[in-house]
Amino acid sequence: MKTYEKSAGFFPSFERKSGPAKDATHYCPGCGHGNVHKMIAEALEDMGLIGRSVFVSPVGCSVFGYYYFNCGNFQAAHGRAPAVATAVKRTNPDSIVISYQGDGDLAAIGTAETIHAANRGENICVFFVNNAIYGMTGGQMAPTTMLGQRSTTTPQGRIETLHGNPIRMAEMLATLPAPTYIERVAIGDSKHIMKARKAIRKALKIQAEGKGYSFVEIVSACPTGWKMDPVHARDWLIEDMLKVFPLGVYKDESESRDEGSWNRRCDPYEPARVNEYLDRLKSTLGESAPVALEHDLHCKFAGFGGQGILTLGLLLSQIGMRAGQHVSWFPAYGPEMRGGTANCSVNVCRGRIGTPLVDKPNVLVVMNQPSLDAFAGEVVDGGTIIVDTTIVEGRPDAKRLRPVLIPATGIADEVGTAKIANVVVLGALVAATGCFPREFCEDTLRAAIKKRSLVDMNIDAFGRGYEFVKNAR
Amino acid sequence: MARQFMKGNDAIVVGALAAGCRAYYGYPITPASEIAHAAALHFPALGGVFIQAESEVAAMNMVYGSAGMGVRTMTASSSPGFSLKQEGLSYCAGAELPCVVVNIVRGGPGLGNIAPEQADYFQITKGGGHGNYRLITLAPNGAQEMCDLTMLAFDLADKYRNPACIMADGITGQMMEVVEIPTAKAARWDHSSWAVTGTPDTAGNLVSSITLEPEKLEEHNLKLDAKYKRIEADEVLFEKYKVDDADLVVVAYGVVSRIVYSAVDQARAEGLKVGLLRPITVWPFPTQAIIDLCGTAKAFLAVELSTGQMVEDVRLAVEGRRPVHFYGRCGGMVPGGDELLAEFRRVMSGGAR
User: Fold this and answer.
1) Three-class SS of residue B15?
2) How far is it, in rounded angstroms, from Cα A228 to Cα A30?
3) What is the DSSP letter of A61?
């Protein structure tokens, strides 16, 4: 190890830093960041990782991490470094990603990002510099500020009943199953520092080996924020802080986990592969020559959730699409759909469809009484209204409308299941409106119904609905 | 001809895949959740990334991460979630990162409801986060456009290194229409000059939005401003429907424009000369198109699902040359064709409401 040479993990000169001193960091005397930076830079260099490393700087005193580290750099929003690091690692699993954060960033505003990146076991290294204070913003209370400790926002000292207790992140995260390695170290005396150096290297090795998430908490001094000289700051850290933040390994599964057990991948974009995939999404109804439509259909289908109202609309839409007409389907969506009254709007038109909402239907299907009450008045004069008389007791205005009264659920029972009443209604609708030929509709149904075993039953149901209307005329 | 009958929300994901999007980050919210459902199905199947993030904030910052690597990436949400994404959008704009963010607008303010609205117009077109920035914002009015404009959004985002948004609504997201399945774009983008990819060739790059020195930050802001002026000059999209001889020009976008098509046809059948100008890009706004119409139109009418937001941009364009009227519904109420027709008649006869 070359003790007196700047690591190649650092830029030879800090050109991104403003001002004249391009060979010094911006950190205060006695601050721990300088030590931690040096350990990381040397580790990346020694381990041959620098070329594929991405360093994510937080908000706080280390916001300018990108001044120093001779690798790809991201500057993240306050608290969000683990989310950014997650995406970087998932986008290029071969990269070595460091989320470098202070206590305000990691344990206050970024608590959610911290916990969830750990809980997902992201293959990243989180280096957490805990100095019990907000440095950059002027010495405010941090989540890790000690009881009794004065800060600019706790001028009387931190009080448990007012401000809560200092948070122990290493202990909290160690309760999660996913993390591989969690240790708390310190920038205190030389023995502490050697341990910190080892922990940082261990975390990077775990990531390089594809073994998952590491979290190294580094208890560190902030002489400026604590209003102490560097020597007193170091002593206070060792004497007082380490009582509240005990050093040690809180979790280590690096030996029991296999290399490469974290094996996410993100393949490069290949248009041919996407095209092949998208091709599988296309309609399986099969091509058909255009089938003429005499009158535009503006339909509303309404009933109870579970009666297949939305499916009824979809089946008619698919028939219309295969016929080469313009089609739109719109459901009443949201909580009212979960078991309550369901309705949807379907347009099948020869030209461009304006509004997808059908507020004045020329075809209305009602499969329960509330739907008849709610929508019968909206049907245009002379419009068709199809009523499932098995379920609906009321009858529509036969003077103004063209009623089609069909015991659809009863017929469906005879076919084999009440669930198929919607297809009985579809047959009745096709017969009553004469929109498309029966055979064309049946062919479309055969293609549209995914479960082959149900095709015959559906064709039977459709046919009975169709015949019922034809025979009634 | 490869077609499929699909939801607008699903069409967004199809468009994203065909545009070469590789990473999707999302959080559940009605009525945008189908976008995440489709992404969860398709992205991993194509070797891409899908993460259900812990929050909208995290999802947007994950987008920042992938975008900073020069990879096409996106997230989608609905109004309350879109509000939470403003931090990340401001950072993406500041760091000049291309990405696509979808807002399926719902009723507000606060938790509001899940019904359609357009009241996020101010937020999305004027910059809902902090600082001087703009979002390229496309407003589809049907399932096909949900797909096509998503593809376009990725191209514009890359072209200008800026976030691009899709502003739709619950109806456009939930409705199904026939969509032509697009052909995947031939890959032709190289971001190695600025992206941080975790490889030695980009190790000298930096993704950041911090500029400490005032003179340098002013320079950066002016550079962004020049970019936004270029977008305003070159990227405006709109549709005209029967406006050439129209006495009344209705300005409406998204789902409302669909209702206006029908109402315009009804009005024409009655001999009323009404037309529609539909902004497809709501930012940049089709200001010049409106100025041009001031020569022939006697009046303008903005129709929106809000208490009046886009109408301000119409007024700014018209600059007092013609009267600008407004008709809006909100809270999830959607005007019917007859309702709009009555409004056309009222405006054209100079009647009071």
Assistant:
1) helix
2) 10
3) G
Interchain contact B199–A (C-beta under 8 A): yes
Which tokens sit at B44? 């991993």
Q: How far is CA A456 from CA A31, A286, A287, A447, in A?
A: 78, 19, 22, 12
Q: Does the distance separating the beta carbons of B62 and A86 come in below 8 Å?
A: yes
Q: How many residues does chain A have?
A: 473
Kindly report the nearest CA distance between residue B332 and chain A, in angstroms.
12
Residue B333 at interface with chain A, using a CB cutoff of 8 Å: no
What's the rounded Cα separation, in Å, for the pair A59 and A81? 9
CB contact (8 A) between residue A84 and residue B61: yes
Q: Does B163 touch chain A (CB under 8 A)?
A: no
B17, B73, B196 member nearest A74 (Cβ): B196
Beta bridge partners of B17: none
Is residue B124 within 8 Å of B253, Cβ to Cβ? Answer: no
Tell if the pTM clears 0.85, that is, is over it: yes
Q: Which amino acid is at A447?
A: A
- Residue A385 CA to residue A366 CA, distance in Å, equals 8
Local structure of A231: helix, strand or coil: helix
Tens-level pLDDT at each residue, chain A (473 residues): 555 789 999 999 999 998 889 999 999 999 999 999 999 999 999 999 999 999 999 999 999 999 999 999 999 999 999 999 999 999 999 999 999 999 999 999 999 999 999 999 999 999 999 999 999 999 999 999 999 999 999 999 999 999 999 999 999 999 999 999 999 999 999 999 999 999 999 999 999 999 999 999 999 999 999 999 999 999 999 999 999 999 999 999 999 999 999 999 999 999 999 999 999 999 889 888 999 999 999 999 999 988 999 999 999 999 999 999 999 999 986 544 444 578 999 999 999 999 999 989 999 999 999 999 999 999 999 999 999 999 999 999 999 999 999 999 999 999 999 999 999 999 999 999 999 999 999 999 999 998 999 999 999 999 999 999 999 87
Collect all residues of chain B within an 8 Å Cβ-Cβ radius of residue A274. Answer: 17-18, 20, 46, 184
SS3 content of chain B, % helix, strand, coil (to 5): 40, 20, 35
Longest Cα–Cα distance in chain A: 102
Burial environment of residue A85 by CB neighbours within 10 A (0 to 12, 13 to 18, 19 or more): buried
The CA distance from B333 to the nearest CA of chain A, in Å, is 12
Cα of B223 to nearest chain A Cα, Å: 20
Give, to the nearest 10 degrees, the angle between helix A111-119 and helix A81-91: 30
- C-alpha to C-alpha distance for B216 and A56, rounded to whole angstroms: 23
Q: Are B158 and B24 in contact (CB under 8 A)?
A: no
Task: Give the whole-angstrom CA distance, residue A73 versus residue A80.
Answer: 15
CB pairs under 8 A between A and B: 246
Given an 8 Å threshold on Cβ–Cβ distance, is A279 in contact with B2? yes
With CB atoms and an 8 Å threshold, state whether A75 touches B30.
Answer: no
Q: Report the residue of B175, B217, B334 to disrupt the A interface, i.e. the one with the largest count of A CBs within 10 Å.
A: B175
Q: Measured between CB atoms, does B191 come within 8 Å of chain A?
A: no
In the block, tokens 């040690």 appear at A248
